[in-house]
Amino acid sequence: MLTPPGPPVGQHGRKVSAVGRLVVIEGLDGAGKRTLTGGLTAALRAVGASVTTMAFPRYGRSVHADLVREALHREHGDLADSVYGMGLLYALDRRGAAAEIRDTLAGFDVVLLDRYVASNAAYQAARLHQDADGAVVEWVRRLEIERFGLPLPDLHILLRVPPAVAASRAQHRARSEADRPRDVFESDDDLQQRCAKVYDQLAAREWLSPWHVVDGVEGVDTTALAARLR
């Protein structure tokens, strides 16, 4: 049986009340989430909002995230082939950041996350050829939200780009950044196609919170988006 989380507790053991907005940017590998995070951060700060950001997986900060990266590059045997095994590692990475997220929500107007729980739901569903109503999406929700007690987002922003465009960008990034080679998920074009479909379904269902879809090909008006968030 899943145990409901207790009251929010900060990383130093004190109870905190969230006053900021938790905004999550989601999208395919190569969609441009990092660029949008930077542009939206600057636009929000320009209108006087205090903003902080975090990206998942937290490579270099979390042992679970580092295990994910290693598995995606075919270390640890067949670990990457396990949908639920990889899903659990992603979830444990976020569980380790839960107190930090709550603390930052208490001190900032907006906390921007590059990937969050919906990323786990979308990719694991795509790997199992399920849709947003499938069993693994519900498993992710029960694990990360109910059991681990992760804060619910106030808003998801889906940065939508055609999978072919995202794949081309990911390939370019791998060529230009020596420390960012494509992993087994990024290299699977069929997986990316299925993942894009699940993301659209999650957005249509407003999974966990409201979703706002933006066009990642034409470019995002970050000033207008910042005004929407304010």
TrEMBL record:
Name of the coding gene: tmk
Top-rank EC class of the record's enzyme: transferase
Catalytic activity: dTMP + ATP = dTDP + ADP
Superkingdom of the organism of origin: Bacteria
Protein name according to UniProt: Thymidylate kinase
GO molecular function terms attached to this record: ATP binding; dTMP kinase activity
HAMAP family, sorted: Thymidylate_kinase
Function comment: Phosphorylation of dTMP to form dTDP in both de novo and salvage pathways of dTTP synthesis.
Location of the Thymidylate kinase-like domain: 25-207
E.C. number: 2.7.4.9
Annotated source species: Amycolatopsis marina
Annotated Pfam families: Thymidylate_kin
Family, similarity comment: Belongs to the thymidylate kinase family.
GO terms under cellular component: cytosol
Record key words, sorted: ATP-binding, Kinase, Nucleotide biosynthesis, Nucleotide-binding, Transferase
GO terms, biological process: dTDP biosynthetic process; dTTP biosynthetic process; dUDP biosynthetic process
